[in-house]
Amino acid sequence: METTKTHAVHGGTLRYLKHDSAVTGTPMTLSVFTPPGDGPFPVLIWLSGLTCTEDNFTTKAGAYRAAAAHGIIVVAPDTSPRGAGVADDPAYDLGQGAGFYVDATQEPWAPHFRMESYVVAELVGLIDRAFPTTGARSISGHSMGGHGALTLALKHPELFRSVSAFAPIASPTRCPWGEKAFAAYLGDDRAEWAKHDAARLIEAGAAAGRFDDILVDQGDADAFLAEQLKPELLVTAAGAAGQKLTLRMQPGYDHSYFFMASFIDDHIAFHAARLGDLS
Q1: How far is CA 31 from CA 13, 94, 178, 197, 217, in A?
Q2: Is 143 a catalytic residue?
Q3: Torsion angle of C-alpha atoms 265, 267, 270, 273, degrees rounded to 10
Q4: Which of 78, 222, 267, 271 is catalytic?
Q5: 255 part of the active site
Q6: Confidence (pTM)
């Protein structure tokens, strides 16, 4: 990996990195915060939402004070492959910046849009090889990235000790954002869509015995709450499956990073308790 920028923050080191991905066939960018000390440290992977790059979380979430205190590496990858030879769409909710953390099977997306495999097969190994990790990791994210965090944890529970989300797209098979993206990336077979739907995965028992709790924060002033996010579907699915899920409806909060900055310390502590807190 090539380091493009380095910053000292809260006694640790923040690096912006770039590498050639064998999975996406493109350059990929990410940020990695390492806490003070020699390690080894557990890892929290953060997945961002529509239109974001690795920079949104890195500069706006205010996560690194708590990560330094708990001794956690924080990794924030870009949300999709990018470049002149990569398929795109003029809309903000499809194409570059909108990978939805699935492996596309349809043209023109299939050659590069393989974000599920990028995160679970390439990124986790890359971080473990390049940084002093304990091998323990958790995952979190926001909106489209909250969907990604939940579904990747449910589909690959052997990789993650815990999972949380801010304002996740709870059931993309039942909202306009998800229906549009899944039709484009995965085709018309809704049975394939369901494999990437957190509420449907929980309802089908994917979380059984895997996670002691799933933490979800949602602002009640979020403009996307009723049409796109639908957290009540997670609660219903968890109840039917006997899975503990803590949904915290936060009064007055919207969909912006001000929301995440207000509660990110709680999420860092939630994961630290399950990763082996080094504070």
Answers
A1: 10, 23, 26, 27, 23
A2: yes
A3: -60
A4: 222
A5: yes
A6: 0.96
Rounded alpha-carbon distances, angstroms, from residue 102 to 26, 29, 30, 244: 16, 18, 18, 25
State yes or no: is 38 an active-site residue: no
Within 13 A of 93's CA, how many CA atoms are on the CB side? 14
Tens digit of pLDDT for each residue in 193-238?
Answer: 999 999 999 999 888 878 999 999 999 999 999 999 999 999 999 9
| Catalytic residue from among 48, 80, 140, 143 | 143
Catalytic residue, candidates 142, 255, 267, 271: 255
Task: Note the Cα 82 to chain centre separation in Å.
Answer: 18
